[in-house]
Amino acid sequence: EVQLVESGGGLVQSGRSLRLSCTASGFTFGDYAMNWFRQAPGKGLEWVGFIRSRAFGGTTEYAATVKGRFTISRDDSKGIAYLQMNSLKTEDTAVYYCTRDGSGSYGKGRAFDIWGQGTTVTVSS
Amino acid sequence: DIQMTQSPSSLSASVGDRVTITCRASQAITNDLGWYQQKPGKAPKRLIYAASSLQSGVPSRFSGSGSGTEFTLTISSLQPEDFATYYCLQHNSYPWTFGQGTKVEIK
Questions:
Q1: Cβ–Cβ contact B63 with A under 8 A
Q2: In this predicted model, what pLDDT tens digit does every residue of B33-62 receive, in sequence order?
């Protein structure tokens, strides 16, 4: 079964760090770009950033709201994408989702088709 | 950044009604758009990709159309399980951006 599972969320104080993991199964993880999205309580969805597959350079892009504070990385041997969140702010409180994007390798049919169940991050002041 | 203007923000409809939701992009995005359904406490679920292609396993009452800057999601006959919030997502140029969402409620 194709699946993504996020983990690592929790309660953290403002200014501290947290690392989220997104563990993939059921597909060739290394063929896909991996994205992180988030959703603040009662709000809409927001893109956080992504990491390209190795075939496309493994480079990253970030939303302006997190650039310089968040870092996305990947371990293709383990099938895991990471979201390292530093200097957390109360406005980073959200459910964080990971999703795959295979449009670079497989075409648009594999763009954001599979999502994890999400992990909750709460940043207190 | 590309702005996605989604309308309406909410609607009330009855089972069996035809429902149309629109997203307008601030600049052309070819067909790099998907539609997602989200129920409370759940992850988004992709319904439509490449503006008009139906995700495998999604009922055929859902359809998408459009290209460039104007896109629509249509539910031909609303069913009880369709009451949810719907979002469009553009992935033509980053930052990827969502519409504000449309909450579909029971009339």
A1: no
A2: 999 999 999 999 999 999 999 999 999 999
